[in-house]
From TrEMBL:
It comes from Zeimonas arvi. The keyword NADP applies. Pfam families: ADH_N, ADH_zinc_N. This is Zinc-binding dehydrogenase. Keywords: NADP. The lineage of its organism: Bacteria, Pseudomonadati, Pseudomonadota, Betaproteobacteria, Burkholderiales. Coiled coil: none annotated. InterPro entries: ADH-like_C, ADH-like_N, ER, GroES-like_sf, NAD(P)-bd_dom_sf, Zinc-ADH_QOR/CCCR.
């Protein structure tokens, strides 16, 4: 089968053996893949958990059709249209764990479906499970114009949040955040942005911060948080290290939680997927939890898709079709 790999020079296309599913796995004929920031790191030669290195089949988000199932798989049948996340998605066939695949609703295209798995489970885990969002609480999403950021706002509203604030340094993107649940959009390049958030919350600050940026923004996000607020650190697009105001952290008694999937067991991720679908399946089916497709590329132009993501030219998801 044809696959996109990382070789010593970067992106390359190669022939690879068609994988064989284990007892609890499904062989998926891939129809579409979607790009994520982690894919850029692997392409650049970095490890993402246990994934990476020369010869690695790229990408982690797919939608397709089940063509073979292991003997212990009871929830998926041959011919089912499914979507999910896992290693080695950028190939004609990939393997899926039985507990990490979601059904694609009737009438939804593979291109639309592939935008959802990573954003749904990442932000359900951040907003609902670790963020412990309660109805009526206020939420701030740092880096809200990314696909997962947009989904964080949609999930917050779906789960009963009150005020939702989204951040973006791009003026054009800020104007669109309201389409995805933001009641207020702020620019984190403005040093006074925490004051805007405090004003919008009557001086209290937000109850929950979903932080995809960190780096130099961490202290400002604590300023924008309420006393006894929660901050869930999902990503570090603004930097993995920065000066941290421990006194401010203590004064506000903030619960600061770090999350990643790189150190979770397969059973933990299966449970995460189960909870995600239990809460969000209806929103996926009725279309209220949907992300914009910024661009679609054929598989042969995967390099152009990566270039678009690297240049940060997209709003929403970048999709690559295999057909």
């Amino acid at each position: 089968m044809k696959a996109a790999i990382r070789d010593e020079h970067g992106l390359a296309f190669a022939e690879r053996p068609r994988p064989v599913p284990g007892p609890e796995e499904v062989l998926v004929k891939v129809h579409a893949i979607a790009l994520n920031r982690a894919d850029l790191g692997v392409l650049a030669g970095h490890m993402h958990g246990s994934i990476g290195g020369a010869g690695t089949v790229l990408c982690m988000e797919w939608a397709g059709e089940a063509v073979e199932v292991g003997p212990e798989v009871k929830n998926i049948r041959i011919g089912d249209r499914i979507m999910g996340s896992g290693a080695a998605a950028a190939a004609e066939y990939t393997l899926a764990d039985r507990g990490r695949a979601y059904p694609i609703p009737a009438g939804m295209s593979f291109e639309r479906a592939v935008t959802l798995p990573v954003a749904l489970q990442t932000m359900h885990d951040a907003v609902v499970v670790n963020g412990r969002l309660k109805p009526g609480e206020s939420v701030l999403v740092m880096g809200a114009s990314s696909g997962v950021g947009l989904m964080a706002m949609l999930i917050a509203k779906k789960m009963g949040a009150g005020l939702v604030v989204g951040t973006s340094t791009n003026a054009q993107r800020r104007t669109r955040l309201g389409e995805f649940g933001a009641d207020l959009a702020v620019d984190t390049s403005d040093p006074a942005w925490p004051e805007q958030v405090l004003k919008a919350t009557g001086g209290k600050g937000v109850d929950l911060v979903i932080d995809q940026l960190s780096g130099g923004t961490v202290n400002a996000s604590m300023k924008a948080a309420a006393v006894l607020g929660r901050i869930v650190n999902v990503g570090r697009l603004a930097g993995a290290r920065a000066e941290f105001d421990f006194d401010l952290h203590a004064l506000k008694r903030i619960d600061y939680v770090g999350v990643t999937h790189r150190t979770r067991s397969n059973e933990e991720i299966r449970e995460e997927c189960r909870k995600t679908w239990a809460d969000l399946a209806a929103g996926v089916t009725d279309g209220s939890l949907a992300l914009p497709i910024s661009a679609t590329f054929p598989f042969a132009r995967l390099g152009d898709a990566f270039a678009m993501m690297r240049a940060n030219e997209h709003f929403g998801k970048i999709v690559v079709t295999m057909g």
